[in-house]
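for the writeup, i need someone to sanity check this before i put it in the appendix. the sequnce is what the collaborator sent (i think, or maybe the updated version? ugh). structure was predicted straight from it, no edits. if anything looks off just tell me and ill rerun, i have time this weekend
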Amino acid sequence: MIIDISRKLNSKTPTWPGDTSFSYQLTWSKEETGSVNVGQITSSCHTATHVDSPFHFNSSGLTIDQLPLELFVGNALVVDVSFKDVVRVEDFEMVDLSGVRRVILKTNAWVDPEHFPESIPTLDPELGQLFREKGVELLGVDLPSVDPLDSKTLDTHHSFEENGVHILEGLQLAHVEPGEYRLTALPLAIDGADGSPVRAILETLE
């Protein structure tokens, strides 16, 4: 079974305050061309469900087209951390991360999909070292950021980069049960970009 964990892109899709809102409109209609409808989109690279490249927060970091695609396809473990103000290393003491390359955190903190959240849980930067030690290379969240919304230092972003952990943000996980799935969340091949929207799905394992 395929489970769509992407946030929908439309005129009501919230984006980071001050960033470019998403829009779609027809450049040409079938009535005008006589054959086809042709549309155009305008969007931030970080709207809804998206991948951050290290270049987003490090001017010498890898851009989105330089990231290995195998990061974004393969088995992933969904971990429920709902109702936690801070997600810490201790929260994984009872989680078996053996052989887990991709972890997805379900916080349930982004309640209204049409409004940008006023606050989100904090992810302890020390998680970066834990994930490196366990072999985790991708961390997905149902939040617009892995750092506090008012952070300027982006400590968790930098910790993840230093420990080889890549970032998938803005997932929709309210309908997903904890457990192991197969993830597909491929970013677009945008040359030199700081991020990319993705269509993220989970597939149940038999």
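The longest strand covers residues 73-80. The chain has three helices and 13 strands.
thx in advance!!
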